[in-house]
């Protein structure tokens, strides 16, 4: 009985992952067993390693200390496999070494918040987690029966042979069924450095067109909504109907139905919206702070807060999240915000807390209205970062745990906040920009892929510009998050500039960019580039960075895509050399 339980524990994660991936792929292809069989083939190497380590540790002739080390190694590999599976299910990506380093200091706190564990509960859980593997590693088990000792090792040694049937290059979503080791080795090319000779000989010129226009020093609110995605809205996609308030606002103002996030995490959205820089990070190792949040994007002198402050604006960053997560508080101050506020604001003490120790969105909007009142005597930029629609999804009012419930609550609070701004006369001299920070970290819906294509679907988010002096309109040309920065700075300084890679969202100079860059969350070693009619994939690999999807017909165009990506990453690498890495206290 004991051996049966042990076998079930060992194979359960493999079977669960196979089932999950098979359903994932079925939604795209309508084909069953493709995902399941590929999981078995890819993970045979890992399970082969686990079984070999365990088998050797049970041999009667092996020393007890060595047996303990072998079992601990097997348990560590097994734990990595389980964590990777949990991340795939919850965040639609793999366990990446860079993420593990970046978020390690906050992960225990996040788990504690999600499950409501006290400090004592965390200690008890930690002791149990340590005690079980230590007991399993050191205790003596009954020796293997000599009669059956030989056939398991033949089976175990044969497992790696199954890897020969893995097919990881032909299918667009092959990343999901790669094993965690193979995945991390594949994306390692992202860290491949540029050679000194390549950098010295590299040059890239981007023609820029500028037009002067009367400056309009309006009050500006950027409302960056966590995980707000086009598929959640009937107005923006027709797929779901979870955002009636957002849809009503969109119908009354300027709505952008072909708008894209430049990255896949909140950090990327903040960089794009507030600095106008593409959130592409330089080649780096974990020893030179490459695992630091916002790496190479600290102390940006030409950030939106710094630009607006030169024109008399007061700039504020508001969120109910813990500012220590991702070093957000330090970064926000480094890019010029006069005032930065997070979860420890005393006004939130009377509210229930959720993940990231955050009060619900309703509390954030109450606080934002108070800050608006305090700034009514001067022009201001207010950047609001919501939290309630972050995974794990929960409606703070009803406690229902589902994505639809969380988004419905989020939408309700957006509607309330908008109506308060209307009642307070904000739109007489103010602009409200409502935008998603990134696509939700959930598997793409079949309807999304059919509507937008598999690459664009993962970047599609809503954008609404509510300006009391502009008539309602629907924009179908493609735009992106960095265009928000570009357009707002132009509005205030009286000079709008555009290029093939930067657009202008409003005014007489309104111009869509020809190309949009999106940092992918599934394949970290690849970057998507969108044009109006085609999508391309660029493989990040130092000097050997290249287009790997369907190749453009002209060599000059292929080179343009590669040169632009390289120019962005080389610029960030040079900036990182001049700025000491910022670390949280």
Automatic annotation (TrEMBL):
<dbReference type="InterPro" id="IPR000917">
    <property type="entry name" value="Sulfatase_N"/>
</dbReference>
<dbReference type="InterPro" id="IPR050448">
    <property type="entry name" value="OpgB/LTA_synthase_biosynth"/>
</dbReference>
<dbReference type="InterPro" id="IPR017850">
    <property type="entry name" value="Alkaline_phosphatase_core_sf"/>
</dbReference>
<keyword id="KW-0812">Transmembrane</keyword>
<feature type="transmembrane region" description="Helical">
    <location>
        <begin position="114"/>
        <end position="136"/>
    </location>
</feature>
<feature type="transmembrane region" description="Helical">
    <location>
        <begin position="33"/>
        <end position="56"/>
    </location>
</feature>
<dbReference type="Pfam" id="PF00884">
    <property type="entry name" value="Sulfatase"/>
</dbReference>
<feature type="transmembrane region" description="Helical">
    <location>
        <begin position="68"/>
        <end position="88"/>
    </location>
</feature>
<keyword id="KW-1003">Cell membrane</keyword>
<protein>
    <submittedName>
        <fullName>LTA synthase family protein</fullName>
    </submittedName>
</protein>
<keyword id="KW-0472">Membrane</keyword>
<feature type="domain" description="Sulfatase N-terminal">
    <location>
        <begin position="218"/>
        <end position="491"/>
    </location>
</feature>
<keyword id="KW-1133">Transmembrane helix</keyword>
